[in-house]
Design brief:
Layout: E1 4-7, E2 11-17, E3 26-32, H1 34-44, E4 49-56, H2 59-70, E5 74-81, E6 88-93, E7 99-104, H3 120-125, E8 128-131, H4 141-154, E9 158-161, H5 173-186, E10 189-193, H6 194-201, H7 206-213, E11 220-224, E12 230-233, E13 238-241, H8 254-268, H9 278-295, H10 308-320
Parallel strand pairs: 1-4, 1-8, 2-6, 4-5, 8-9, 9-10, 10-11
Antiparallel strand pairs: 2-3, 6-7, 11-12, 12-13
Helix pairs in contact: 1-8, 6-7, 8-9, 9-10
Domain Carbohydrate kinase PfkB: 1-306
Protein name: PfkB domain protein
Keywords: ATP-binding, Kinase, Nucleotide-binding, Transferase
């Protein structure tokens, strides 16, 4: 049985690498795409996962498929398209490891997934269905996303949502906000960056954003804030953790590592986020916060996922103080 199914973008991150010549930029090929990154975390931690999406029938698509298969992620519904190329993202880093993106996606293969190409049986078998908004920027992937999430909802699956806002991929900010609000209406659990939370709610302070987000009837919501750590809430509890101290090299995929680790915590402990204790919830979120920080110590999203034993050791050290 599949535990978690994710639908969305799967692409190549060309991440800037160090060069002895400041006039020459060099880039390393890495697998990317937020939904796939979340599954990579879960699969690495022992959760059975499947991915729904589309790549080009090209060397990059083949590379991405092999990367997921190497992680034991079910790729039976990863479609190859001979008419559209795999989406590419070039990621440049500043001296703090923070990212800037450039996308080659005008009719990238990930936007061409159609509703008819979705294997609904995969969704019917799973416990958690995860999606974001980048599959909602264009048709036909928008309609495919809505079909999949509505089917998952009708089957009583836990709906997980992470907007993963990228301004360059939207016609305008209002379109992105509308998609984020639509996603929240379906979601049971959600993770947003502080920027996304502020866009959706119109509030500035993280605590105020949480209160507004809970109006979407979410069972759990978290807001990640980079060097400021994270805040989270249910209708019963609210909490926060500061950033776990590490030597930051590349922040790509840190939010995905946070969310994948958090979903793992729920699944691994058989926790019901509607009935979970405050202590157990705090443990799960702190573990996710540590994993996210550790993922910034290496370049790339999937290659930087830490070993769970290392994350757990850091958690035990913190709790022992």
């Amino acid at each position: 049985m599949i535990d978690v199914v994710a639908l969305g973008e799967l692409l190549i991150d060309f991440t800037q690498s160090r060069s002895n010549d400041d006039s020459v930029r060099r880039f390393e090929q890495n697998p990317g795409g937020a939904p796939a990154n979340v599954l990579a975390v879960l699969s690495k931690f022992g959760v059975k996962c499947a991915f729904i999406g589309k790549v080009g029938n090209d060397v990059f698509g083949e590379f991405l498929r092999n990367q997921l298969l190497d992680l034991s992620i079910d790729c039976r519904n990863l479609v190859s398209d001979s008419d559209y190329n795999t989406t590419l993202a070039f990621v440049t880093l500043d001296d703090k490891g923070d990212r800037s993106f450039s996308f080659y996606r005008n009719h990238g293969a990930d936007t061409r997934l159609s509703a008819e190409e979705i294997d609904l049986e995969l969704i019917r078998e799973c416990k958690v269905f995860h999606f974001g908004t980048l599959s909602m920027t264009h048709e036909p992937s928008l309609s495919a996303t809505i079909k999949a999430v509505e089917y998952a909802k009708s089957c009583g699956k836990i709906i997980s949502f992470d907007p993963n806002y990228r301004a360059l991929l939207w016609e305008n900010e209002d379109s992105a906000i509308s998609a984020m609000k639509l996603g929240l209406m379906y979601a049971d659990i959600a993770k947003l960056s502080l920027e996304e939370a502020q866009m959706v709610t119109g509030k500035t302070l993280p605590e105020d954003c949480l209160k507004e987000l809970l109006k979407y009837k979410l069972g759990f919501v978290a807001i990640t804030m980079g060097p400021r750590g994270c805040v989270y809430a249910t209708d019963k509890y609210i909490g926060a953790f500061p950033e776990y101290p590490v030597n930051v090299v590349d922040t790509t995929g840190a939010g995905d590592t946070f969310w994948g680790t958090l979903i793992f915590g729920f699944i691994n402990s058989n926790a019901n986020f509607l009935e979970i204790s405050e202590e157990k919830l705090s443990e799960i979120v702190l573990t996710a916060n540590i994993a996210a920080a550790m993922s910034t110590e290496k370049k790339g999203a999937i290659p930087s996922i830490p070993e769970f034993a290392k994350v757990r050791a850091a958690f035990e050290e913190i709790k022992g103080k």
